[in-house]
Amino acid sequence: MSKLKPAKVFKTAVEPHTPPSPGQGSRSPQAQQGPRHITGLSFDDRGDQVITAGEDETFRLYSCKSGKQVKILYSKKYGVDLPRFTHKNTAILHASTKEDDTVRYHSLHDNKYLQYFKGHKGRVISLEMSPVDDGFMSGSLDKTVRLWDLRSPNCRGLLNLPASPVVAYDASGLVFAVGINQYSRILLYDQANFDKAPFLTITLEDPTLSKVTFPPRAIYMTSLAFSTNGKYLLVGCSGDAHYLMDAFEGHLLAKLVGHVGLERRRPDAPLSIEPQRGCSGEEVSWTPDSRYVLSGSADGKIVLWDVSILPAKQGPINTKAEPLVIPPAAVLEGHPGPSRCVKFNPRLAMMASAGAELAFWLPDQAGDPEELAKELLKKK
């Protein structure tokens, strides 16, 4: 993992802002916001393709094997965010950023919309495809989670919540998690009985935060992801730490530190009093074998944590117990600017990171020149 290097960087992965008119200079809204960013990326099931969504209202398809851009599609009318491949590599789901809050089902093959999923009254901030069938879930700022099926435009389930949610399926598709910000709660539901109460409610409390500031700054959850074996739940946050929870009983197992949080658009901007989501909720993810966690950082580094050995906790949950703090196993450099989206390919030894530019990372096959020289001498 520490040998990963950026093999290809796409410098034009997002169209830049139009230049400000003369006289506006640094006072223009574009200069205040900084450059446009890629806000989401997704690999298809076979790991052959990756799609990105950007603030320039385009989604771009890339081939992982050739390392080339395949096509650019525009969504100027509705905007585009949270692109997700369905189980076909020619179709995606995506959320809208303007006009309305509909989830759209789009064919990449002939650039047509196949279906509209209407119902949300606020921007969709979390969208996940079921790993086993054509079902999917969306979480919105209207404080609801809706369950859908690609074959029907009608919502097949609705959860009303006290605050905006983030959602995730486990690898079996039988369980899903809903994280509720402001309340620091994660609810686990049985997919077949989602209309009943959650079978587990996890409280996310980090007692170490009160040592930094008092009252402690709230944790803002931007994503949830189950490990492949279903034992652990990775809680991605916009601040300077991510968390690992026991998905069976709800213990807080570990705190992952060493990166710079991504809630600010520009690294030099001051932190707000209330924590914010940032412009992407995809800064942290598992490797496919669930041995490592990868995260982006506002300073452009990619941070890796080895989570193959985690403490086992049993008995009643103690929210005052301090979690195990895990420092990075490796820090990778080479991504230009803040790395806001980081995902590992599900099938190939390849990683993608995105911010104002897109980078494909591959293991450096060259190795250490001194070691290679020794090997050659041995052969002689």
Automatic annotation (TrEMBL):
Belongs to the WD repeat SWD2 family. PROSITE patterns: WD_REPEATS_1 (PS00678), WD_REPEATS_2 (PS50082), WD_REPEATS_REGION (PS50294). It is found in: Nucleus. Residues 23-35 have a biased composition (Low complexity). This is WD40 repeat-like protein. SUPFAM superfamilies: WD40 repeat-like (SSF50978). InterPro entries: Swd2/WDR82, WD40/YVTN_repeat-like_dom_sf, WD40_PAC1, WD40_repeat_CS, WD40_repeat_dom_sf, WD40_rpt.
